[in-house]
Amino acid sequence: MSPLTVAVAAVGALSLLNLVFALGIVRRLREHSEQLANAARPVAGAPGRAVAPVGTPVGTFRTGSTGSTGSTGTADDALGHEDLADGTLVAFFSPTCKPCRDKLPGFVARFADRPQERDRVLAVVVGEAEACAPMLASLAAAVPAVQEDQDGPVSTAFAVRAFPTCARVGRTADGRLVVTEADVWPQAAVATAL
To answer: Is 0.85 surpassed by the pTM of this model?
Structure first.
């Protein structure tokens, strides 16, 4: 075999290897783009906002019983808008939404490691009770969590139009509850979803 043949064969092999690596990189970039799009995109197809914008007063509501730290809750655990303190994060999930399922482990881990923050979090799982049960059980291990049907009282009070979404609330000088941050997730929840 002549040196020229060997050189041509080596260049051909390197070119083929380069092509395989390039196709692998393109595939990985496509997967990352899809993950980023799913993490940022509201599922219900709502153009614009997924939750009430900053400054919007939160409507009145009363939840069903909440569960926390592994319990399913009792009727006495029900919360109303008057029970939410300054800085409370209210997060909305749906069992039919893939980004919700992706974001859930990070969200649970974030608050499981910080039990001192549990009193300032409320998770709401929206959908049929049976479908919501696994997601609700995961959340209830870390934070107060409640299930409600589509257009339930908490979702309506926060004008939720897509999932997952969240809002942080605060009190004005006259005691009204307003949205202070919209769709801003705790860092650990975002990092796990990506």
So the answer is: no
